[in-house]
Amino acid sequence: MTQEVISSQSGTYKKIASRQSTPASDTAPKALVVERGLTVFLGGAGMVGSYNEDMVSALQEVGIANPVHGNYSSLVTGLDSYVPSLVDMLGDASAVALYNQDETDPVVFEYGELQKCTYGSEYIEKKYLFGLITVRQYDRVECIPTSDLLAIKLGRDLKAIKSTDFSLASIGIGKSLPAAGQFNIIGYSWGAVIAARTAIFHARKGVTVNHLVLIGAPINASLKAAVCNHPKILNTHIVDLVSQGDPIFAGMSDQQIVDSALKLANQMPTAEGHFHYSGNNPAGRARRRQLAKSLHAKGLR
Q1: Which of 27, 112, 181, 202 is the most exposed place for a label (fewest CB within 10 A)?
Q2: 190-244, pLDDT tens digit by residue?
Q3: Burial class (CB in 10 A: 0-12, 13-18, 19+), 93
Q4: How confident is the model over 148-193, as pLDDT tens digits?
Q5: What's the total number of domains in the chain?
Q6: Is the domain of 182 the same as that of 275?
Q7: Same structural domain for residues 118 and 264?
Q8: Alpha-carbon span 215 to 235, nearest angstrom
């Protein structure tokens, strides 16, 4: 029987309780399993449809490790779960022009050609709405009339902009950045916009992106240049579908995106052109497997 009271130079100690330890039946050392790599696929507007799961399966079949598909909605976070998929899809599609530029680009959206004006050197500055809006009235303004009936340009103050969160959690991925293997991001259509923003978000935080794949990507020149030139994005693969009749291509302007809307609407029901890889039919599944093989050939693992 064990002693109930133990006395020592530092004091007297009384046992309160004890518990017998039971050795494990298998005492052999266990190998630590580490997931190798992470490949994120982001689909088109709405990021819904069975082709997302099928694209993940196609990537697995060719040996690309740990593929998953994510979800990033232009709606309020979580709201896309409570609205019809068509509403979510239209919301994402209409938001493309607000997301498709780099955050260092002072122009958010531009359509048509605005008036070209020169201003005098003297002005009176007035502030409205508690200083949020500043209006300058110049002593001299000379403008050349524009020929465009509709001309819009939205800008932003870069000094006031905070970096948008495009972490894995924000795009619906419940996994961590890989400790071993490749970190790859694949985006298609609206998903290509979010893929590019996700890649540059991580690259600017010092995370290496092994492969960024942008398929039918309606991104502006500023975002294309950012992802193609950042040293932490080791390989950027631009997959334009122009040969399939797709009006969308990486580096296009906002006006070209808006003007392509009618053609895209005509292509969507037949899963052709811009929607070449989204068909929920044998042809679509075959195309996705062909795409997966081509990505494996480009070095994605």
Answers
A1: 27
A2: 999 999 999 999 999 999 999 999 999 999 999 999 999 999 999 999 999 999 9
A3: buried
A4: 555 665 666 655 555 689 999 999 999 999 999 999 999 999 999 9
A5: 2
A6: yes
A7: no
A8: 14
